[in-house]
Design goal:
Length: about 200
């Protein structure tokens, strides 16, 4: 069973993911895989340089700040980048799924719906939190300004959109409650998996 896990920035997806890991669930983090592929896959590197120019890489590392500044202002470039990276990530996930014979595998992606990968999931879990709580977390974590965080949030699909398309929603306002919700969702997924 493939379970998609998503949520906006600052919602606490990683925390929820770790709770699932504690329950023995195998997890595939699409964003980490994408970063790794953009760094190591020669074909991807060539395509990214063709799209963004030589500035796309500095000292053999992806110049994430530069790419982020370009894609935030040019939506077409973001779309083109996603069209390069997502098929490669999907291929890696198929390999991952075939090597991990766990009954439930979580595919974690911030842009699960935007990338169309929700279609490859049997069930979807969305992690949500109050906007103010998300901003507080991000101010602590990213050393970004409030304006930068709000701008990034505006560029994401809102929670309402995700909630309507999800099978489960985890409200991540405090750790104890989030952990209990994860355990409940896990039990329900395990039951559904037996019926599949």
């Amino acid at each position: 069973m493939v379970v998609g896990l998503t949520g906006g920035i600052g919602s606490g997806k990683s925390t929820v993911l770790n709770f699932f890991k504690e329950l023995g669930v195998q997890v595939f983090i699409a964003d980490d895989e994408a970063k790794k592929l953009m760094r190591t896959n020669k074909k991807l590197r060539k395509e990214i340089i063709a799209l963004f120019g030589e500035e796309a890489y500095v000292n053999n590392e992806l110049n994430r700040k530069y790419i982020a500044s370009v894609v935030f202002n040019e939506k077409e470039k973001l779309k083109a980048l996603n069209n390069i990276v997502h098929p490669a990530v999907r291929k890696e996930f198929v390999k991952f799924k075939n090597t991990h014979k766990s009954e439930i595998v979580i595919y974690e992606a911030a842009i699960l719906f935007e990338s169309g990968n929700d279609e490859n999931c049997d069930f979807i879990v969305t992690v949500i939190a109050e906007t103010e709580e998300k901003i507080k977390r991000l101010l602590k974590r990213d050393l970004s300004t409030r304006a930068e965080i709000e701008s990034r949030m505006k560029n994401q699909v809102d929670d309402e959109f995700k909630i309507k398309r999800s099978h489960f929603v985890i409200q991540n306002s405090d750790l104890k409650s989030a952990k209990i919700q994860v355990q409940t969702v896990f039990k329900m997924l395990s039951t559904l998996n037996k019926k599949m």
